[in-house]
């Protein structure tokens, strides 16, 4: 994913992440002062980033540990920018069609007074804002100034700019506002190198290549392989004995094409390496050709007491082969389980190779609530036949499919008859309107059985004619 953060009106930080995992949740808010309305819930989002370290960046001047430290510095900088954006109420997120923004906090009396800003900061409105990368704070003008020609600045909140390498002719090195040394100009281009990565540069010799700019050496093709010309920019310029297809890499020792091992992929022809799957993902088999074949295999566990969902691993992508997931739902005393299956996608197989089952215990003889090995695109809601549920999903090594995401909620057993009357009423599934509510509810499972024209997630009208408005918090 590409993370593009706006720190102020004319400032931004752009960073590319190979893997990002978002966890969303709700928690109750502390009631406001008497007479003032307050929301009953607030959303909190946890984001886990993974930033890849490229071993091709390793040079004689900067080994692998040096590259890792540089990568960690970039990640910390992106996180700092996120925190600052959230603190300044400049952080916006769109998730599942909803526009989210940071909750506004009323300023304290001490904060309403204009205070002196910190080093490298200037006043923007009533706030102190750090000078962005590519600028520095000029005390005489009391504002942020663009870095002049021949200099750069890759950090926020600085009071000077750093000179570009070889600043003997700064007018030809760059335009103002450089935020990275690579913008200084004069870098050696791909297929070139020099002692410091800047001009004057030499072409990579025959039998070597360099795919990136600003490097101090070139990579050897290996295995005594020549290149087609001087200044080669990739391993594909090496004259291999065979050309490897996607899903394979060229072994310079045996001079043969080898299938990419499980957990890696290669989408291009003629490469000498395979790309590792990001995060906790892996491939079903060797010889993968695309990152979409990297799948998250994590699943199963004990689920929450009141609400939650189960989903096939790697959802909404296709689930992995040879997977076995087990979940348990064990509600508190005097609570029962209500489940909605919006849709489920499983491959068509004669022997039911992939299946989902819900029953009281792991024993095949225990009371079964739900079981399927087929695709169903029409939603269904039902109550558990037992007070607790053991749920299992298994896939074989054959075909795969999108799988499922199944929400559930527990409710006070005093409402058992009411809930069962509602979920058994055929009108709930007959209307296309109600099917869409069951499939695409944004407010959790409570919304699944109610009209979208009502008052939100806390208080809504049941779709069944003749039922009065009901506060769903009672079901909790």
TrEMBL record:
- Disulfide bond as a keyword of this entry, yes or no, is yes
Quote a single Gene Ontology cellular component term. extracellular space
Spell out the SMART domains in the cross-references.
Answer: CUB, Ephrin_rec_like
Q: Which InterPro entries match?
A: CUB_dom, Growth_fac_rcpt_cys_sf, SCUB_EGF-like_domain, Sperma_CUB_dom_sf, Tyr-kin_ephrin_A/B_rcpt-like
* Disulfide bond found in the keyword field: yes
- GO biological process annotation, one example: signal transduction
Per the UniProt record, one Pfam family is Ephrin_rec_like
Which keywords annotate this record?
A: Disulfide bond
Q: What region holds the CUB domain?
A: 299-411
Q: What name does UniProt use for this protein? A: Signal peptide, CUB domain and EGF like domain containing 2
UniProt organism field: Myotis myotis (Greater mouse-eared bat)
């Amino acid at each position: 994913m590409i993370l593009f953060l706006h720190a102020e009106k004319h400032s931004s930080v752009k960073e590319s992440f190979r893997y990002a995992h978002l966890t969303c949740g709700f928690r109750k808010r502390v009631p406001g002062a008497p007479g003032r309305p307050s929301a009953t819930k607030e959303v909190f989002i946890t984001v886990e980033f993974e930033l890849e370290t490229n071993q091709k960046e390793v040079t004689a001047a900067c080994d692998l540990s040096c590259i890792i430290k540089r990568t960690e510095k970039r990640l910390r900088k992106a996180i700092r920018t996120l925190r600052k954006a959230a603190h300044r109420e400049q952080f916006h997120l769109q998730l599942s069609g909803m526009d989210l923004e940071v909750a506004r906090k009323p300023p304290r009396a001490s904060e309403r007074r204009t205070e002196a800003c910190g080093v490298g900061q200037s006043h923007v409105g009533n706030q102190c804002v750090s000078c962005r990368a590519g600028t520095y704070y000029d005390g005489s003008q009391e504002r942020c100034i663009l870095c002049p020609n021949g200099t750069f600045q890759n950090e926020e909140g600085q009071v000077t700019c750093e000179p570009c390498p070889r600043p003997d002719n700064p007018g030809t090195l760059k335009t103002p506002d450089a935020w990275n040394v690579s913008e200084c100009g004069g870098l050696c281009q791909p297929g070139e190198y020099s002692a410091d990565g800047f001009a004057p540069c030499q072409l990579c010799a025959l039998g070597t290549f360099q795919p990136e700019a600003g490097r101090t050496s070139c990579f050897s093709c290996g295995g005594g392989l020549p290149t087609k010309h001087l200044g080669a920019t990739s391993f594909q310029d090496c004259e291999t004995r065979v050309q490897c297809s996607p899903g394979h890499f060229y072994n310079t020792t045996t001079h043969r094409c080898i299938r990419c091992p499980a957990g890696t992929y290669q989408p291009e022809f003629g490469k000498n390496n395979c790309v590792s799957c990001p995060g906790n993902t892996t491939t079903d088999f060797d010889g993968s050709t695309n990152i979409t074949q990297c799948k998250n295999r994590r699943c199963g566990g004990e689920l929450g007491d009141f609400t939650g969902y189960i989903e096939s691993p790697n959802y909404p992508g296709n689930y992995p082969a040879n997977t076995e997931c087990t979940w348990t739902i064990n509600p508190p005393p005097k609570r029962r389980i209500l489940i909605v299956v919006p849709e489920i996608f499983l491959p068509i197989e004669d022997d039911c190779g992939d299946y989902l089952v819900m029953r009281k215990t792991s024993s095949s003889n225990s009371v079964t609530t739900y079981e399927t090995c087929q695709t169903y695109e029409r939603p269904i809601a039902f109550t558990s036949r037992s007070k607790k549920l053991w749920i299992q999903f298994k896939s074989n090594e054959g075909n795969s499919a999108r799988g499922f995401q199944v929400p559930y909620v527990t409710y006070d057993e005093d409402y058992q008859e009411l809930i069962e009357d509602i979920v058994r009423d055929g009108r709930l599934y007959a209307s296309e309107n109600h099917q869409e509510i069951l499939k695409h509810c944004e407010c959790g499972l409570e919304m699944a059985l109610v009209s979208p024209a009502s008052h939100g997630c806390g208080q809504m009208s049941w779709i069944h004619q003749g039922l009065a408005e009901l506060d769903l918090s009672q079901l909790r």
